[in-house]
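Hi D.,

Good news: the full-assembly prediction came through. Inputs first.
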Amino acid sequence: MSKQFDILVIDDEQVIIDAVNKICSAEGFKVDTSIDAKDALEKLSKFSYKIIVCDIMMPDFDGFEFLDEIIRREISSPLIMTTGYSTVENAVKSLYKGAIDFIPKPFTADEILNSVIRAMKYLEVQKLLQASRLQKDDATIIYVPCPAKYYRLGYASWAEEENAGSILIGVTDLFLKTIEGIEEIELQKIDEEIIQGNQCASIKSKDRLVHTVLSPVTGRIIERNEEVLKDVSILEKDPYFNGWFYRIIPSESEYELKQLIPCSSDRL
Amino acid sequence: MKTMFNQIGFKLILAVGVTALLTIGIFSYFNIHTHSTSLLAEVELGANQLSETVIHSTRYDMLLNQRDRINKIINTIGEQPSIRTVRVINKAGAIIYSSHQADIGRMVDKNEESCYACHAANKPLERLPIKGRTRIFRPVKSAPRVLGIISPIYNEQSCWQADCHAHQKSQTVLGVLDITISLEEVDKQIQKSEMEIIIFAITAVLALSFIIGFFVRRWVVKPVNELLKATNQVGVGNLNYTIRDRRKDELGMLARSFNNMTQKLSEARMQLFQSDKMASLGRLAAGVAHEINNPLTGVLTYSSFLLKRTENNPELHEDLKVIVRETKRSREIVKSLLDFARQSVPKKNEANINEIIERSVLVVENQLTINHIKLIKNLNPNLPTITVDANQMQQVVINLVVNAADAVGTSGGTISISTELITLSPYGITHIKKATCPKRHDLTDKEYKIDGMPSIKLKILSPEGEDIVHFDPVYGRNRHLTNITELKNDAKVVCPQCNTSLMEENVKCPKCGSAVISFDAPTQGKFESCTSKSCGWQRWDAVDNEGKREYIEIKLSDTGCGIAKEDLARIFEPFFSTKGQKGTGLGLSVIWGIIDNHNGTINVESVINKGTTFTIHLPLKQVR
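Then the structure:
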């Protein structure tokens, strides 16, 4: 590996490559770009990149194929997906396949930047985890993985089926670890509909960045956790139980839960 | 252009006119014929009587040979206007008396037509019936007809013993009396009645044609023209045209059914138009969204980036804020367009069930191999395509296979899936979706379901007390939930809300003779059932009349642990689970909902420790 980059941007639109390049470079990241996925794969074999930002809808070789390919090549760089055809299926499918984040186009400078910053943080956490595993140091808890019964969308939000048929929704500890301290949480109102793969909440971090939380399932909000709104520390202390966001009545949970990653698979 | 001869009204009038003309014509012919024959017979009889009278009245004078008196009598008779001539001809053929004096003494030719009847053979006949003695002829052409009658004057004892000794004993006929009567009056009468009948016939035919024409115009031509106008209107695309025809005959029915058809067509066209519009709008929206999102990303990223860098320049900052805000607004518009496009895409499509099963199996294959479960597929390759929501059907199959795999466990076993095209009569398949008592109370009970379908709640009133029966909503299946084995004679089945009797008076079960209950299945007529549990006779005419239908049958069996009998009735209920904490109890209820939405049925049979079989029937063609 002769050269080290922070970010590889893949998009078939030059203007987007330029924009992302400009935004990320301004923050001090070292950016490389590629106009198509095949060229990107070539670059990946030559150079190393910390994270990859990839468009889904591209001619010839699309983002999903690219994702399959980097998994096959065992390239560990986290992948952020973007697409103009921002359907729910795209978002959920890419997260299920192993992308860590999904940004629907058009995005603002902050949205892409925040996602990149979180990805960098994610990378750091993963490195820490690996280091502690190597040292067989079980005492230091890097982050708390979500309970076995839970399902997660990407690494960020979780869903838990309750016995009454309702579903609880919240964010994972790992997601919180990629944020520099929570300052404020913004939730939707009761009776509103949230849709799988679409924004359902936003978290403002202490570095004044706003982070979007994607909903893991579709349904109508019947209850929201007012406690967590009042006291954000609850979320940091206990993201899986007391720190839940919404209780919803799902509309298609049977199908949608299959699109999520079961947390039990994290413990294999 | 249609000519008059091609019009249905004209053809009908022509047919009726010709028939009437023929009938009246034949009738008139025979009528006139009989009339004239009887008139002539009357004249003949009169003439014969006259002849007899003449012969008798002159007999005495003849014996006394008083010729003057005879002449006088004959002349007096001959003076009557209808009598042309009265002649007496002797054996030699000479006219000895005549009402025309000039004729007396003239010889008559034996071959003259008045003599022919007797003298045709060489030896003259002596006796002739009255028919032979009369003749009708015209003395001169164009003169009125004349009837002649010849009466022979026979020899008698007094003739040859008379003093004059004119006749000998051996003679039989002494001469003949010949009377001719003019038929002018009779002919006139016949002609008159002929004329009358012809006038009557023409009037009758004309009147009949006119009346028929009037009613044909009123009952056929006008409504047909109205229908023609309507079809032309529909032909040019005006589906809102309705025929204002309130009559109750066949054409009125045709008009109403035509109106019904155009209304249905119009609705179908509206629906097609609407879904077509939605689909193309959806495609357009999706296309636009995709195309516009990239340039919009350029604008939004650059402007928001600039916004971040110009925080020290308030003037520029405010302007950029506007740009970012408005670009974000465009983003929301595009997003809502995409949301709309997704909604409008129709979910049901033509699909091959086998392909759906193959795809579903792929998803779970790994899990099955891990658990040492053998999957046997027995799919009929010649299945026709069926209109279903492929995603939902896939969900059904995956769920059932996963359930089966859970039932089999990790110790190994088999799951088999088969598909088949079958034809079923409605008996044992169709389920009563709605049931009401005569007072329109809803009898369906959603709390108590039998195989996932709301049962029909009935109350049994007997002197001992009340009881509730949950009646199986599937036609002919008879899996009722009840403690009662046989209905007692004094018990009554009633509506649980209003106690109105559901017993059928005067109707006995055709199979076992027990009492019969009935209730309404709204829009699908009356449902009847025998009250004897062991008999199980049921009748549902409306459904039976629809006849047999084709279904695709999907059978999924496993060799798993089976389902307990008491659970079997409840497995399609939401939140009912035998898996404890592992399941949500929603899977099978969702499956049931999906199959029900496709107007299909799902049934389960299970034997503990032997296995479970789910059978799904999907109708090939949707009704109504």
